[in-house]
Specification:
The protein has 2 domains: 50 residues, no CATH class; 201 residues, MetI-like (MetI-like fold, Orthogonal Bundle), CATH 1.10.3720.10. It contains 12 helices and no strands. The protein is an all-alpha fold and 283 residues long. It is a multi-pass membrane protein. Belongs to the binding-protein-dependent transport system permease family. Pfam families: BPD_transp_1. This is Carbohydrate ABC transporter permease.
Length: 283
């Protein structure tokens, strides 16, 4: 009897923790749920009190109207193109730079690494005026190439540091054994180092894709032509009015815009967690 009473008492704190955790998860998920539900409502019922927690008459016309809009398809395609290009270029540069910082020793190495990371301390707004003037002089305004360059420089510092941690955890003995077998430096990179660093490479890729997909300030400042705009500035300019908002349509756009990010987290969540926690615990 005493053992069963003690076991029941020990379960009570666990139940309380699970309940608090469940409430916290619901608190985080509720905005996404409300955004999704609102996309299936008519504007006439959005401000009803009490609100409709589940739509009584789901409306699908918002999605049909959205995908019939050529501008939305253009914005979506531009966002995918810019985000994928930024991710590929950032991965390529970060892998080689991270390997160099991890394996080679040279003067002012630590100072250079902190100088690279210190660029993250500057707010984007403080860079936009100088960047706009420089882009105008070099003819990079209203080009996807210019936007990719800006987003790549914004994501590189943290990406280099993140992937360097994975390279630090790979034993040097593997490279020495490969050298004895006659493997070149590039052979070591592509046959040993990069395959063993897949979690880091995936986490850097996900981080860069999310950063470029969610960008607003760079895209809004450096691109003024409507057919070249990406999704976020397109939403803010085309779908948000000055006096009144079509909230159901806006929520429909937002739901559609979150699909790539949701897919990334569903399939590559473990790599993202591994990348963010790498190096946090040392033996």
């Amino acid at each position: 009897m005493q053992k069963s009473a003690l076991s029941n008492k020990s379960k009570l704190p666990n139940l309380g923790q699970y309940a608090l955790l469940l409430l916290f998860v619901l608190f985080l998920i509720f905005p996404l749920y409300w955004m999704f539900v609102t996309s299936f409502k008519d504007n006439s019922v959005l401000f009803n009190i009490p609100p409709e927690w589940v739509p009584k008459k789901p409306v699908l016309s918002h999605y049909a109207k959205l995908f019939a809009d050529n501008y939305f398809v253009i914005y979506y395609r531009n966002s995918l193109f810019v985000s994928l290009c930024t991710t590929l270029i950032t991965l390529l540069i970060a892998m080689f730079a991270g390997y160099g910082f991890s394996r080679f020793h040279f003067k002012f190495k630590n100072a250079l690494m902190f100088a690279i990371l210190s660029t993250q301390m500057l707010p984007v707004v403080s860079l936009l005026i100088a960047l706009y003037a420089m882009y105008k002089s070099y003819g990079l305004l209203n080009t996807h190439a210019g936007l990719v360059i800006a987003l790549t420089t914004a994501s590189l510092p943290f990406s280099i540091w993140m992937i360097k941690v994975f390279f630090d955890n790979i034993p040097h003995s593997l490279e020495e054994a490969a050298k004895i077998d006659g493997c070149s430096r590039f052979g070591i990179l592509f046959r040993i180092i990069f395959p063993l660093s897949k979690p880091g490479i995936f986490s850097v890729g996900i981080y860069t894709f999310i950063l470029s997909w969610d960008d607003l300030l760079y895209s809004l400042t450096l691109i003024n032509k409507d057919n070249l705009r990406t999704l976020n500035p397109g939403i803010s300019i085309r779908y948000m009015g000055e006096v009144a908002y079509d909230w159901a349509n806006i929520m429909t756009v937002c739901v559609t815009a979150t699909i790539p990010i949701v897919i990334l987290f569903l399939f590559f969540q473990k790599y993202m967690v591994a990348g963010l926690t790498a190096g946090a615990v040392k033996e």
